[in-house]
Amino acid sequence: MEIAKITLATASVVYLLLLVGSVSAQNMTNETMMSTNMTNATGSATDGALAKVKILEAIKSLESGDKTSALVELTAAQDVIAGESAQAKMHFNEGMKAFSGGDSNNALVHLKAALNFLG
């Protein structure tokens, strides 16, 4: 009789652990799916906003003469501007060419134009 009680108690604990684990796994799956869906739904808007922020930061850095920070910001913007309008990309690329050539003034002109096309 004593063995039956222990076996039943052990089986109950195992069942409870499996049940809790299953519920936790389901919750994690639901959270992951929600997060993925939210990212997909807002991806392009987020990329455009991030590109705008990075370009603004690059402009501030260029205007203050900090070319190292400008390069960091422009590199980050380059990663997210790909899905934006052709005009925004064209001005951004021209700004990058000017920046690479050491022409901060033309870089600023084109980066500000790119911002206008980002909205």
Descriptors:
mainly alpha; globular; 119 residues
Structural commentary:
The protein has four helices and no strands. The protein has helices spanning 2-63, 67-80, 86-100, 104-118. Helix 1 (2-63) packs across helix 2 (67-80), helix 1 crosses helix 4 and helix 3 packs antiparallel against helix 4. Residues 22-43 have low confidence and may be disordered.
Structural class: mainly alpha
The chain-level mean pLDDT equals 75
Backbone CA Rg: 27 Å
Task: Give the percentage of residues in beta strands.
Answer: under 5%
Uncertain ranges: 22-43
Distance between the termini: 77 Å
**SSE order:** HHHH
Tally of helical segments:
4
> How would a crystallographer describe the biggest sheet?
none
Q: Helical amount among residues, as a percent range?
A: over 70%
Question: Tally of extended strands?
Answer: 0
- Give the overall silhouette: globular
